[in-house]
Structures are given as structure tokens and as C-alpha cells.
């Protein structure tokens, strides 16, 4: 191992250097700031790096927080989320620094307590929601309320939309894939910046001879509208075609401009399926205003609990007139077992017994998150901005950048315009990428829970790594030695989380230059 000098920043330097907002042209400004931070190296403490990172002192944190508040005064107005963290997340004290919200949110303690209280309440029995007994009706009633809560959460009119419960968002997307009437004269339009559960739909299309077309993303992911325009051309001779949209990328943080895409899709006669798994946990959506035909979500991503439950929120006209079921094994009292003769509502699309004990927690969880959805975009925009610009500015002792940030830098003027994800590649002092497993091991040692690899989104990963391959060739590309590092914030992320991650980046990542790749 070659000994090297690593700059260990003095606490006050961490406060000012790492957390000042980047304004204007992100890349150019970041470049300038990298230079500025290199020039400021004299202010920091230059030393041979110690074998372990210095433990951050509480006073360092307080000082950095004061600087942060000066730079981002609007953060103060989001303190309701600090109260939530204090009341419902005591278990985070002393735990890992959790920055994998895109992987799964963390449940509030009160949600579990309320759920348990309901299930354990004297005289409250919950039977399978398939008969007319008191216990069965109780389950049915609560399942009904959960459906209503889901509709409310996405602002959908219950006359227009139904909620079909699925095991997760993937199950919801698959349900559309397997029941969409793909034929030789139809098309499937898929986004390049998409999760594998979206890419998977193409298998159903290809099996039926349907042409699959990909639309591209911008330099920082999301939707390239020109590319979409090229492939969406109205086609009078085409039969039923489907456009799938990634609401928010789980890697690039880019959000799709639904208000621009939907009129275009309508004009071209395309049905629309929105993957909202990464979008709805932190973003209010309105299916009244952006009426996609179907929308897939997962509840553990929204409120952390229960796992194993998602939903397809589907236009009744779409499920009735377009989707086709080849198999049915519904478990409700009102459904019959012959495909094509059953009811046209959710009953027909849910396989077997629904998760009737878990569903009351869905309603409770959505209520909790709803209470904070107005302040969440402001808070997450600020935290993500501080984190992203802090990482972008961090340098090696020789002045070389420590990381290449590839996700969207949030716009402080437009809270919530992009997601709370920072995706980056860490670089060694000579500018080559550091392997994922090396970074991940270091993060684990510093007790930081993040995600590395391709995040099930090969299009976004390869866009950013500059690999010139077709998305299709990469779907099952198992090489995760090099990929992206994803740090994602969520419901109860706070300044301390960001500060701990930045401390790790500044003090520990430079040492990884010496670890053999
Ligand atoms: C954008 C996006 N779509 C779909 C999924 C799949 O969600 P689930 O694991 O709930 O099926 C994920 C999961 O991370 C995601 O981020």
C-alpha cells in the first residue's frame, strides 16, 4: 500500500466548504468550487491520514449546522419533520446513518403501534375478507378504507379509478404487461431511464410480436422529449399501444414532465402506464390533473410498512375495456372463477386472498406521510442540494475531484422539481473510478447504509458511465464491480445524516485511492 497524504478538513472547514449552495450552471459552478476548495486547502489541516477517521464531535456538528442554516434559511420552516423524527424514530439514534430511502422508507413507530393496537383490540377479530361474518366484514371494511386512502393519496376520483392491490410495484407493472393486448400492429414505448420492472414489460410485448421502442433521456436522465416525439408519431394503422413513463428515476432523480407527455400520448392514441414507485414517497401527484391510465406504487417505499404490498391504480375504463385476463383465481365472495365473466372491478385482478391484516396499516401509513407532504419537498431539496454540492466539491490532496456526481442538482427555487437522490462515482486521485465493493466496505465501516451498483436501472447507470451499449444488452449485465453509488434521502432525513455522509466522503473516501482496484 502506498502511503499518501490526505487532507482531513477541520470542522469549521466542513461547515463552510462543504455546505455552501451551488447556484446557476451546476457543472461549471461545481468545477469552480472544486478549484476554490483546492485553493482553500491551506485552511484545512494537511496531515498523513490516521488509520481511523476522527470521530466528529458534537460541537463540530453544531458549528456545521449553524453554517448550513445560514446558507439554507428555508430549512427552519421544515422543523415539523424534526418533531416526527424525535417522536417516532428514536431507534435512529446510535444506528447506522440510513441513506437508502429509495430502497425502502423507514416506518414511524406510531404506525406500528396503531396497527398492533387495532389488531389486538379486545373483540376485534379479522377474518378472511370473503364471507359475511362480522370478522370478515371488518376486514372487508378496512380493505375498502385502504382503497379509498390510496385514491386520496394520488388524488384520483373513485368513479374513474380503482385500486388493485399487488405484492409490490413490480407486481402492478407486470399485471399491466401481461394483460395489455399487445399485437403485431401495436407498439410499446419504454423509457431508457427505467427500473428493470419496467423493462420487463417488453417480454410480454415481444412475445406477441409487438415492436418495442426506447425513448432516451437527457444528459442527467429523465425524459428526452425530442426522442419521445420521434417515436410517438400518431399511427392510424397501429392497434392498441402503450407508453410507459418513469415518474421519478431511482438513480438520476429526474422527474418526468407528465403535463407535457400526456397530451402528446393522448394525441397519438397511446395508453399510459406510470411507474410512480420512486415518485410518490416524496411527491404529491394528482391523477385528476395528470390522468394516466394506470399507475404503479409500493407502500414500503412510502411509509416503510407494511412490506409486500403495492397497488395498481387503474382507470376503470382501461381495466374494463383494454386489459385482458387470461387467468383468474380471485378470492372474494363476489367474483366467479370463469375468466371473462367476473366483475370488472379490482376483484377480478387480485389473485387469491388479499393481505387483509396488512391493509389497515396502508391507510394509517398514508395518513402519516400525507401530513408532511407539504414541507417534505422543501426539506429534501435543501438536504439533497447540500449533499450533492458538498460531494461535488470534495477533492483529493492533489486537487483532483473526489467524485463525479451524475444525478440532478436540485433547484432551490423549485423545491421538489427533482428527487432526493445523489448518485455519483467516486474517483481516485488519478481520476479513475473506485470499485463499488471498495466504497461499500468503507461506507459499512463508517456505518452508512447506502446502495451501490446499477440499482436495477441499467439505462441510467450506463448513461452515466458512458457505456455505449443498447439498454437491451445490459439488462442482465451482472458486473457490478463498477457502477454508481446512490445516497438517497427520505421522510426523516436530517442535517446530521447529510453531515455524517459528507464527513465520510471527505475523510475516508480519499484513502480508498490506495486500495487496489
Ligand atoms: C422506479 C422504481 N420502479 C419500480 C421499482 C420496483 O419496486 P418494488 O420493489 O416495490 O416492486 C423500484 C424499486 O426500487 C423503483 O425504484
* SSE class: alpha/beta
The side-by-side strand order for the widest beta sheet comes to: 4-10-9-8-7-5-6
Q: How many E strands?
A: 15
Shape: globular
Could you give me the name of the CATH homologous superfamily of the largest domain? Type I PLP-dependent aspartate aminotransferase-like (Major domain)
CATH architecture of the largest domain: 3-Layer(aba) Sandwich
CATH fold descriptor of the largest domain: Aspartate Aminotransferase, domain 2
Distance between the first and last residues' Cα: 12 Å
Low-pLDDT residue spans: 1-54, 332-343, 467-476
Overall pLDDT confidence? 83
Question: How much strand?
Answer: 5-15%
Radius of gyration: 24 Å
What would you note in describing this structure?
Helix content is 38%, strand content 13%. The protein contains 19 helices and 15 strands. A seven-stranded mixed β-sheet has the order 4-10-9-8-7-5-6, sandwiched between helices. A four-stranded antiparallel β-sheet has the order 11-12-15-14, sandwiched between helices. α6 (134-153) runs parallel beside α14. The longest helix is centred in the first third of the chain and has 20 residues, at 134-153. The protein is globular, with a radius of gyration of 24 Å. Pyridoxal-5'-phosphate binds next to α7. Keywords: Transferase.
